[in-house]
Design a protein that fits this description.
about 30% strand; alpha/beta; globular; Transcription Regulator spoIIAA; six-stranded mixed sheet; single chain; 6 strands
């Protein structure tokens, strides 16, 4: 598994790129990392790119826990977030999450590609810099 946080300072977009097996433990870890980086950069939007997930081992219990927890990014009513869904089962689970979080995070969207995420955030070809 590999993940990288990147930031587009012009549009203040936080990008998480993930590749490999996604597990409950790693998902919990990434939740706190998103909180840390979104706060440190004062990101006004985020993209969580899970399109390169090779194995989706996140339990329904964890999904329920995360849906009921405060969003990792502060103020979800003014900060749009896009999740680029992995193919297959990840997409189905992602759609369920989208429906479940909608009342608390109306700007959370599930998309199928980075280009679709950029369109949802009204940006074209943003340049991202790696965060450490």
């Amino acid at each position: 598994m590999t993940y990288q946080f990147e930031f587009n300072p012009e549009n203040k977009i936080l990008l998480l790129r993930f590749e490999g097996q996604l597990t409950d433990k790693l998902t919990r870890h990434l939740y706190w990392e998103v909180r840390k980086y979104s706060t440190a950069t004062d990101a006004s939007a985020a993209i969580f790119d899970l399109s390169a997930v090779t194995q989706f081992d996140v339990s329904p219990e964890l999904i329920r826990e995360l849906v009921n927890r405060d969003p990792a990014m502060p103020d979800p009513t003014r900060r749009p977030r896009c999740l680029v869904a992995p193919p297959g089962i990840g997409l189905a689970i992602s759609r369920l999450c989208e429906v479940a979080v909608e009342p608390r995070s109306p700007l959370f969207k599930i998309v199928l590609s980075l280009d679709e995420a950029f369109a949802a955030l009204s940006v074209q070809s943003p340049r991202f810099e790696p965060l450490k």
